[in-house]
Write a structure and sequence with these properties.
The chain is of the alpha+beta class. The protein is built from 4 helices and 6 strands.
Length: 122
Amino acid sequence: MRSGFLSCHYCIRFICSNHLTRLIVDPGACGFTCKVKVDKVGKYQVTINVQSQCKQIKKLANEMAEIDFLEIYRGPYGQNYISQSAARCGLHPSCPIPCGLIKAIEAELGMAVKKNVGFTYE
């Protein structure tokens, strides 16, 4: 294992760039690593590109072209556009991809620090 890399079941890694936010989500048991690119196009608007071999994530990616973050931020937990799209696309309830998308959007819009996230089993 690489030095400094968190040993985790789920891992979200940010890759810094001046023009867009890149995120790699390793969802764990399913093995379908997901690559996300988020690019700011307005004060609260972003475009999202999602790449994965997972059928459900591919469906989700088709619904995630451009997002207004205020629609996500203002809604109650679990009732925002990304969560509702994830439910429609049949994602597993514990899939970390929707959370990763929201974190990447926040980071791209300057609303959050690009800090890695992980779950570690003991």
